[in-house]
Design goal:
By secondary structure, the protein is α+β, with helices and mostly antiparallel strands. The chain contains 9 helices and 8 strands. The protein folds into 2 domains: 26-94, Winged helix-like DNA-binding domain superfamily/Winged helix DNA-binding domain (Arc Repressor Mutant, subunit A); 104-272, GAF domain (Beta-Lactamase). The strands form 2 sheets. It has a 6-stranded antiparallel sheet with strand order 5-4-3-8-7-6, with helices on both faces. A two-stranded antiparallel sheet has the order 1-2. Helix 5 (105-121) runs antiparallel to helix 9 (255-272). GO terms for molecular function: DNA binding; DNA-binding transcription factor activity. Residues 1-27 are annotated as: Disordered.
Length: 277
Amino acid sequence: MPSDTAPDPQNRRARGRPRGWDDKTEQNTIKSLDRAMLVFEHLSRSQGKMLTELADDLNQSPATVYRVLVTLETRGLVEFDPAEQLWHIGPQAFVIGAGFLRRTSLVERARPILRRLMEVTGETANLGRELDGQVLFLSQVETNATIRAFFPPGTLAEMHSSGIGKVLLAQMSEERIARILADHPMQAFTPNTITDPATLSRELATIRAQGFAIDAEERNEGMRCIAAPVFDHSQSAVAGLSVSGPTSRVSEEKTDEFSHAVIQAARDLSAALGGLP
């Protein structure tokens, strides 16, 4: 006879996970696949690399890297430009990335808010989140102006030199900030980049008090960015919104105007996610 007692979910193996699924030791990793992903990730951060450059960057033999590239090429994840002798990220990488973006409602809900923010300010509007101690740009609505900022989806940036990065750091605990800075040393990109932890700490206190962050030519000279945090239903800062453009248009004199617009857009997206600042 069938039992009336439901199986104990604690004793039921989770679907899609074998026994020991949380064991990330070497015995449960595929070295060749890990090596391929290392090449793929490194290539994704560049605008094209020669085989010898990739091999040198990764301290791998050109023959090994070439086999990885050819394998990835057959899947459309990378492609080769014979004229320039450069390897690039392929179209299938975008298809896979788009699948990730479709999984989250964050990008979908942000799109009309980003467009409205761009129309109100006349500058490029951006959406980003923290990923492994860096800013991952998820979406962007570009201005029609000739000179404009450009952060295509998938771009990674260091948090200490980014408006979105700093506004997210400002919502984190000191312990988490310390871990991020330990993993990602504070590199100087321009003369304005903050590279001193104590100075950054004071900057983050100001950001928490005023509700927005400014990237004052800290990543790229001549470009300025104003960002605000986005909160979810648990009041966690899950993303940041920003506007960015040349200092001639996103000027210090317009800080109040732009910051009000960015904060309002961040509040609108927070509300759409069921959260409040």
